[in-house]
Amino acid sequence: MDKKKDFADILRSSGLRPTKQRLKLAEFLFNRDKTFHFSVENLNKSINKKNSEDKIALATIYNTVHAFKKAGHLKEILIKDGKNYFDTNTSSHHHFYDEANNELIDIENNKIELKKFPIPPRGKSIKDVNVIISVDNDNQNH
């Protein structure tokens, strides 16, 4: 299977032309074994390292990430203080948020038991539930 073609297909399904920069972004995001959580700022730093030959404009990164989200290839996770992260795992699941390291860690859906939900507003239905549990370093001596 040709990965370059797969990434071009992901871009096209997102309504994007498969340019060299967008293909590089798609490969960076989706060519991995584990779920990848990132902010646009961190992605920009990772993609455009000081010695990187082919820099990608922040606007291109931002627009591509949001097009991927709109097409269902990424999930956006909103954290307190207006921080938002993106997740390559688009299945229904929850997260620990490590405040010390500004990092998200997946929690499988079946590890959290939710028993009672409020009735959604008239004309609305619950689409998904995202639980974010903030964690901090344990500073206690054992």
The SSE string, one letter per element, is HHEHHEEEEE
Helix content: 25-40%
- Note the main sheet: 3 strands, antiparallel
Distance between the termini: 51 Å
CATH superfamily of the largest domain: Winged helix-like DNA-binding domain superfamily/Winged helix DNA-binding domain
Instruction: Report mean pLDDT, rounded to a whole number.
Output: 88
What is the molecular shape?
globular
- In total, the number of domains comes to 2
Radius of gyration: 18 Å
Which regions contain 5 or more consecutive residues with pLDDT less than 50?
none
* Structural class by SSE content: alpha+beta
Which CATH architecture of the largest domain would you pick? Orthogonal Bundle
Total number of helices:
4
Number of strands: 6
Do you know the CATH topology of the largest domain?
Arc Repressor Mutant, subunit A
Strand content: 15-25%
In spatial order, strands of the major sheet run 1-3-2
CATH first level of the largest domain: Mainly Alpha
Furnish the topology, listing elements before pairings.
Blueprint: H1 3-13, H2 20-30, E1 37-38, H3 40-47, H4 58-70, E2 75-78, E3 84-87, E4 94-98, E5 103-107, E6 132-135
Parallel strand pairs: 4-6
Antiparallel strand pairs: 1-3, 2-3, 4-5
Helix pairs in contact: 1-2, 3-4
Describe the structure.
This protein is α+β, with helices and mostly antiparallel strands and 142 residues long. It has 2 domains: 3-78, Winged helix-like DNA-binding domain superfamily/Winged helix DNA-binding domain (Arc Repressor Mutant, subunit A); 89-135. It is 30% helix and 17% strand. It is built from 4 helices and 6 strands, in the order ααβααβββββ. The chain has helices at residues 3-13, 20-30, 40-47, 58-70; strands at residues 37-38, 75-78, 84-87, 94-98, 103-107, 132-135. The strands form 2 sheets. Strands 1-3-2 form a 3-stranded antiparallel sheet. It has a 3-stranded mixed sheet with strand order 5-4-6, with no helix packed on it. Helix 1 crosses helix 2 (20-30) and helix 3 packs across helix 4. The radius of gyration is 18 Å and the shape is globular.
